[in-house]
Amino acid sequence: MASLKDVSKAAGVSPSTVSRVITGSRPVDEETRERVLEAIRTLDYRPNLLARGLRNKSRKSIGLIVPSILHETFANFIYFVEEACVSHGFTMLLGNTQADAEAEERVLKNFIGMSVDGVIVSQVSDESAVVKSLNRLGIPVVGIDRAPDDEEADRVVVFNREAGEIAARYLYSMGHRQVACIGGPETVSLSRERLDGFRSFLTEKGIEVHHVSGPDFEFETGIAMVRKLLGQGCEFSAIWAHSDLLAIGAMQELARLGMRIPEDVSIMGMDGIQLGEMVRPTLTTIRQPFREICQHAVRLLLERIEHGHAKPTRIVVRPELVVRDSVCHR
C-alpha cells in the first residue's frame, strides 16, 4: 500500500506539500496540486484521515453539501440531518453549492480543511466529482437525493421511478388523457427516473406525454416551462411537475393566463413541502419522507466512520401520494 512518502517522491515534492494538497489547509499552486493529485491517483493512495482525526481529537463534525439552502426541499434535508447529527453528539457543518460545480468543489475543499469526520452530499449533477474525491481521500461519504447508482458510496434515495408511476396512475384514475410533465435538469438522474416512471405507465395506456425539462427545480422555472409548453402548442388537462416549487410556478402562470386550477388544468407536484399546503388550491403531491431519509443517511455515515471499509449500502425509501385540491376529475 502506497504511503505519503511514496506520493511525495512520485510528485517530486515534500511530504508536507502532499499533506497540504490533501487537507486544503494551506494554498498550493495549481501545477503542483495537479502533480500531487496525479501521483495519488496513480499510486491509489488512500490517506487515513480518520486515524488522523482520532489523534487530533476529532471535532465530531459532519459536513452536509446541498445545491440550495433556499429551496424548501433542501431546507428539510438541512433540518433533519442536523437533528440526527445532534442526537448522536455530532455537529453539522453546512455547505451551499448554489447548484454550481465550481462552488461545490470549493465547499468540498473547505470541509477537507476542517477535517470533518464524514460528508453527506446531494450533488449538483451526475457529473459531480465529490464522491470520487472523498473516496480517494478515504473520507466517509453518503449520497442523498441526487445520488447516482453507479457511484461507489453509501446512498439513501427515494424510489423516483415509483414516484412517477404514482403520479401517472393517479392522474389517469382521475380521467386525464392529455398530460404534460415539467421535469428538472436532465443531468440529474432523479429527473430521468421520475420521467421514466411517469411516461412508462401512460405509454402503456396509449397516452403521449408532453415533456419539458428546466435547468433547476425552482418556482421561476415552473413559470417558464408552462410558457414553453403553451408555446409549443401542447394541449393538456393535467401537469405533473418534478418539484412542488415547479408546480406552484406553473399554477401561478396558468392563473395569470385566466385558467382555473383544477377545473381547466389539474396540477401535481413532488416533494411534499409545507408551501404546498399554503397555496390555493392546496397542492396534490408526491411526498418524500425527509426525516426518514436523513436518519438513514446519518446512521450509515456514522457506521462508515466507526467501521471503515465495507460494501456500499443503498437504501431506497418509498414516496407517498398526498391528495389535496389541485387535481379534479376530467
TrEMBL record:
SUPFAM superfamilies: lambda repressor-like DNA-binding domains, Periplasmic binding protein-like I. Residues 2-56 form the HTH lacI-type domain. It comes from the Bacteria. Residues 3-46 form the HTH cro/C1-type domain. GO terms for molecular function: DNA-binding transcription factor activity; transcription cis-regulatory region binding. SMART domains: HTH_LACI. InterPro entries: Cro/C1-type_HTH, HTH_LacI, LacI/GalR-like_sensor, Lambda_DNA-bd_dom_sf, Peripla_BP_I. PROSITE patterns: HTH_CROC1 (PS50943), HTH_LACI_2 (PS50932). Gene3D superfamilies: 3.40.50.2300, lambda repressor-like DNA-binding domains. Pfam families: LacI, Peripla_BP_3. Transmembrane segments: none annotated. The keyword ATP-binding does not apply. The lineage of its organism: Bacteria, Pseudomonadati, Pseudomonadota, Alphaproteobacteria, Hyphomicrobiales. This is Uncharacterized protein. Keywords: DNA-binding, Repressor, Transcription, Transcription regulation.
